[in-house]
Amino acid sequence: MSGPIRVTVHPPSPTGGRRVRVDGEILGLAHNLADVAEFLRRAGLELDPAEVAESPWIDWRGAGPERWGGETSG
Fold it and tell me: What is the 3-state secondary structure (H, E, C) of 18-63?
């Protein structure tokens, strides 16, 4: 079975990090673009961290690739 790979980076957690899924399987909790690139590498997808932010096949939910959660206010 082949087809487009679905990568989802979930909304930032209040405590920091974002869950990363590939085709429905959770790969881990990323804290930056390098983490996402590493999870994808382990899944057989080679991407440079700079390419991760611009990739059209990654669904960034809740915020773009510049937000990772754990921010404090005031």
Answer: EEEEECCEEEEEECCHHHHHHHHHHCCCCCCHHHHHHCCCEEECCC
